[in-house]
Write a structure and sequence with these properties.
199 residues, 44% helix, alpha+beta, 2 domains, four-stranded antiparallel sheet
Length: 199
C-alpha cells in the first residue's frame, strides 16, 4: 500500500473495493495466524517514516528494550532484530503471532503518548501499522537474518553491522563467527529484499 498516494482516485476506489471484498485490512497487508509455531519477520514503521523513535538516543534504547521484552514473552525465540530511528524489524519464532502483534500495538500506543508529551505534539500519529510475514524457506530465513543485520547499513546509519548498537548483529557475529557470517552473507544475499516496503 506504499503506492496509495501515487494512485488515481479510480485506482484507490478499485483497490479498496477489492480489499473489502477479500475481507482484508483497507490500508495494510493482511495478518496471518496459522496457530502453529512459525518463523516471522515483524516490522513496524513510524508514520510517514519520520524519525520520531530516534529523535533522541534514549528512545531507541527504550524501544529496543520494549520490543525485546514483548518478543521474549510472546515468542519461543527472538533470532534477529534491528531498531532504527523510524522503523524496526524483528525475526521471531512463535505460535502466538496475534498476541505478539497486539502487545506491540499496545506498546506503540504507550510510547506514542509518552513521546508526544515529550515533544509537545499531542495527537500526532507516531506509528503506522505492524506487519508480519511468514518465513517460507531456509533461504528466506537466512536472507531475512542478513537483511535485518544489514538494515542500519542500508539506511546509512552505520558503515558496518557491528557499528549499530540497536541490533543483534554483534550477538550473531559472536555466536557464528565472522567467517561463517561471511559465508551466510554470500550464500543468502539480500539483493532487493525489502525494496518495495522498507524505504
Amino acid at each position: 500500500m506504499y503506492d496509495w498516494r501515487k494512485m488515481t482516485p479510480q485506482e484507490r476506489a478499485e483497490t479498496l473495493r477489492l480489499r473489502k471484498q477479500l475481507i482484508r485490512p483497507w490500508h495494510s497487508p493482511p495478518h496471518w495466524d496459522s496457530g502453529e509455531s512459525r518463523y516471522y519477520i515483524v516490522s513496524a514503521a513510524c508514520y510517514e517514516h519520520k524519525h520520531i523513535a530516534g529523535a533522541v538516543f534514549s528512545r531507541l534504547a527504550m524501544l529496543e528494550k520494549s520490543v525485546l521484552e514483548i518478543c521474549e514473552s510472546c515468542s519461543e525465540k527472538t533470532i534477529a532484530w534491528s531498531i532504527l530511528p523510524n522503523h524496526y524489524h524483528v525475526l521471531v519464532k512463535t505460535e502466538h503471532i496475534t498476541e505478539l502483534r497486539y502487545s506491540l500495538g499496545r506498546m506503540h500506543g504507550r510510547l506514542s503518548r509518552q513521546w508526544n508529551l515529550e515533544d509537545n505534539c499531542l495527537g500526532r500519529k507516531v506509528w503506522h501499522n505492524c506487519v508480519e510475514r511468514i518465513i517460507r524457506s531456509e533461504r528466506h530465513y537466512w536472507a531475512t537474518v542478513n537483511y535485518i543485520h544489514h538494515n542500519a547499513v542500508k539506511h546509512g546509519f552505520a558503515q558496518r553491522w557491528e557499528q549499530w548498537v540497536f541490533c543483534s548483529a554483534v550477538q550473531f557475529l559472536n555466536e557464528v563467527g565472522r567467517e561463517k557470517a561471511k559465508e551466510i552473507w554470500k550464500a543468502y544475499p539480500v539483493l532487493d529484499y525489502g525494496k518495495e516496503w522498507d524505504k
